Automatic annotation (TrEMBL):
One of its GO terms (biological process) is anaerobic respiration. Keywords: 3Fe-4S, 4Fe-4S, Electron transport, Iron, Iron-sulfur, Metal-binding, Repeat, Transport. This is Respiratory nitrate reductase beta chain. It comes from the Bacteria. Coiled coil: none annotated. It is found in: Cell envelope. Residues 23-52, 98-130, 131-160 form the 4Fe-4S ferredoxin-type domain. It comes from Paramagnetospirillum magnetotacticum MS-1. Pfam families: Fer4_11 (PF13247).
């Protein structure tokens, strides 16, 4: 993302929701171990209660699965991957010895233009002043329009409480000056968390400058305090073609065919990002 694009995208308050802070995350796919420490840290913190058995606010799935039959003519290699997380996992693509796969860790994207929010008939979903997308549990009536609308499958219905629930970016921890559980627990140190709208934050510097890698204990970089190793390289969003403008960014896998990178992380840098506030809604609704 160029400086010019950053100014357009994050250098001003969100035109639709007014937030002047947008918390986001940058994950270096190349370093994920698929250890699921993040998933378990999240689950034991937020989704270990009644009705939450199948909720994973943070998930890690092996990509691609490749063998799952596509339905309804969906000509989309990633579509079923996130819908049926971990089905047929560890089935590499390609022909030996040129096989490839990668691990995709995903929290909610806390989108700039959230499809879940727009779909809610009771106005229970809102973006808070930090750009975090939340569901007011007192107002939610469990219609599940949000569950169907989120193209990333990141809202879950609790059949015990009859409410929808989702990742909250650990905002109670943020208020105590701590990072989210998935960031703190990451064994691979692949995650950087911060305010995308702050020009001085580590994450915004790294998204604006793809040549900026964070190296641990490097006395030459002002970013040494993070003690995390993020590779240099283009920063992209996962499936930006859905049009919700995710706040979660990735360093895409480097050792897979470039056309495959485009399938998962394509269109972001030259398409939708050029006019980030013109997007009117998701390009795809699920067929549940
Ligand atoms: S990823 Fe889905 S649940 Fe999260 S803010 Fe975007 S549309 Fe809403
Ligand atoms: S804790 Fe970090 S390295 Fe382990 S699966 Fe999660 S994102 Fe990947």
């Amino acid at each position: 993302m160029s400086e010019e694009l950053w100014q357009k995208y994050y250098g001003q308050p969100n035109k639709m929701y007014g937030n002047k802070v947008q918390f986001g995350m940058l994950l270096d796919i190349n370093k994920c171990l698929a250890c699921h420490s993040c998933t378990m840290a999240c689950k034991t913190t937020w989704t270990s209660g009644p009705g939450q058995e199948n909720m994973y606010f943070n998930s890690v799935s092996t990509q691609p699965y490749g063998k799952y039959p596509r339905r309804n003519g969906a000509n989309d290699p990633a579509y079923f991957d996130y819908r049926f997380s971990n089905l047929y996992q560890d089935t590499p693509k390609g022909t030996y010895p040129k096989l490839w796969q990668f691990y995709l860790a995903r929290p909610c994207n806390h989108c700039t233009d959230p499809a879940c929010l727009k779909a809610c008939p009771t106005r229970s979903i809102y973006k808070n002043e930090d750009g975090i997308v939340l569901i007011d549990q007192d107002k939610c009536e469990g219609f599940q329009y949000c569950v169907r609308a989120c193209p990333y499958d990141k809202i879950y219905y609790n059949s015990v409480t009859k409410k929808s629930q989702k990742c909250i970016f650990c905002f109670p921890l943020l208020e105590k000056g701590q990072e989210p559980q998935c960031v703190k627990s990451c064994v691979g140190k692949i995650r950087i968390f911060g305010n995308l709208m702050d020009p001085e934050s580590t994450i915004s510097k790294m998204i604006r400058d793809p040549s900026l890698g964070v190296k641990p204990y490097d006395p030459q970089t002002s970013l040494k305090a993070t003690h995390r190793v993020i590779n240099e390289g283009e920063r992209r969003q996962y499936r930006p073609d859905f049009g919700t403008i995710p706040s979660v960014w990735y360093v895409p896998p480097k050792n897979i065919p470039p056309e495959e990178v485009e399938k998962y992380f394509g269109f972001g840098m030259k398409g939708l990002l050029d006019e980030p506030h013109q997007v009117s809604g998701p390009t795809k609704m699920k067929d549940i």
